[in-house]
């Protein structure tokens, strides 16, 4: 049992790093398998102005770097690589990174979720420079400008409605002739004077202008007509995908793949397995709420480990 750790945290970002901080301060000496791209979604965000404690805002990568260093200061061990396989079904859990196996009595899953991309030219290049998936994060930067929101579900309606607080106009681009959003959400958007809808159109390219979004090319799915919309921001709201592929056959997940926890705790269906952040939360998806559940997961793991020793 000498090589069995107390705790492994799979994932980083606000949830993973906060869990690591609390676990390290509790002397659990956690191993954090951060992923090759450590830091989560905030690594592609520019100014973060709504995280408490930073009145002048902070760059997303800087915030993640500070969280990472704080966890490391208290003794968290960080491995910047991807977990490739897990076994969460035994009393001792195993997480593989390539051919190397790491074992622990408890595991916290904090792998987050990824926004579903459009996969069109210009999207990845301009991510964080006019392309976003979070209106509450980035809407403020488009005050008095024209914005496009891509999607037709509740998320798109919510994003578009929220963005009218800042934007001059909001154009919803939807590939069908009707929304799949709930009736109340759709009506709220359709009756907003700042919102107009481009029906039956798909985005084919996001146009770059001096390193920022300068427009968006669309194509009518019925006529094939193509045109370019003059917008300065593009918010993609066609859904999120939880990063649960690695373990969704070992613990309970919902129909969309989000890990189910025994709320208000972070316990999953697997004993000694906890989950936090956007892997669980498909409602709020904020850095501060992810950090909060990361804290909860560390406390839950600490209590679980204590109960195993007693």
Description:
Helix content is 23%, strand content 28%. With 310 residues, the chain is α/β, with parallel strands linked by helices. The protein contains 6 helices and 19 strands. The chain has helices at residues 13-25, 60-73, 135-138, 154-163, 183-190, 287-309; strands spanning 4-10, 31-33, 47-48, 58-59, 77-79, 85-87, 93-97, 100-109, 113-115, 131-132, 146-150, 169-173, 195-198, 201-209, 212-220, 226-229, 233-236, 240-242, 273-275. Strands 1, 2, 5, 6, 7, 8 and 19 form a 7-stranded mixed sheet that branches.
Mean pLDDT level: 93
Question: Low-confidence parts lasting 5 or more residues at pLDDT below 50?
Answer: none
Summarize the biggest pleated sheet: 7 strands, mixed
Derived from helix and strand composition plus strand pairing, the structural class reads alpha/beta
Helix-strand sequence: EHEEEHEEEEEEHEHEHEEEEEEEH
Total helical segments: 6
What is the count of β-strands?
A: 19
Strand content: 25-35%
| First-to-last CA distance | 18 Å
- Radius of gyration over all CA atoms, rounded: 21 Å
Give a short overview.
The chain has 310 residues and is an alpha/beta fold. It is built from 6 helices and 19 strands. β6 and β7 form a beta hairpin.
List keywords for this structure.
alpha/beta, seven-stranded mixed beta sheet, five-stranded parallel beta sheet
């Amino acid at each position: 049992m000498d090589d069995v750790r107390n705790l492994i945290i799979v994932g980083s970002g606000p949830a993973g790093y906060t869990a690591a901080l609390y676990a390290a301060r509790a002397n659990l000496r956690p191993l954090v398998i951060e992923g090759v791209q450590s830091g989560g979604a905030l690594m592609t965000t520019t100014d973060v102005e709504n995280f408490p404690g930073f009145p002048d805002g902070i760059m997303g990568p800087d915030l993640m770097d500070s969280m990472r260093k704080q966890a490391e200061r208290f003794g968290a061990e960080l491995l910047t690589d991807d977990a490739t396989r897990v076994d969460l079904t035994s009393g001792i859990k195993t997480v593989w990174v390539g051919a190397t196996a790491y074992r622990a009595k408890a595991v916290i899953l904090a792998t987050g979720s990824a926004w579903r991309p459009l996969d069109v030219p210009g999207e990845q290049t301009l991510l964080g420079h006019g392309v976003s998936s979070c209106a509450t994060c980035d809407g403020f930067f488009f005050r008095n400008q024209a914005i496009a929101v891509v999607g037709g579900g509740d998320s798109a309606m919510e994003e578009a409605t929220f963005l009218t607080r800042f934007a001059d106009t909001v154009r919803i681009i939807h590939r069908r002739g009707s929304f799949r959003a709930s009736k109340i959400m759709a009506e709220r958007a359709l009756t907003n004077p700042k919102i107009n809808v481009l029906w039956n159109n798909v985005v084919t390219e996001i146009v770059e202008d001096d390193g920022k979004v300068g427009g968006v090319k669309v194509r009518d799915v019925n006529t094939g007509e193509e045109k370019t919309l003059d917008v300065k921001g593009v918010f993609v709201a066609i859904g999120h995908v939880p990063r649960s592929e690695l373990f969704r056959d070992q613990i309970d997940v919902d129909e969309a793949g989000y890990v189910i926890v025994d709320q208000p705790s972070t316990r999953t269906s697997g004993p000694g397995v906890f989950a936090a952040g956007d892997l669980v939360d498909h409602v709020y998806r904020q850095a501060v709420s992810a950090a909060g559940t990361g804290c909860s997961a560390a406390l839950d793991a600490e209590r679980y480990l204590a109960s195993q020793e007693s």
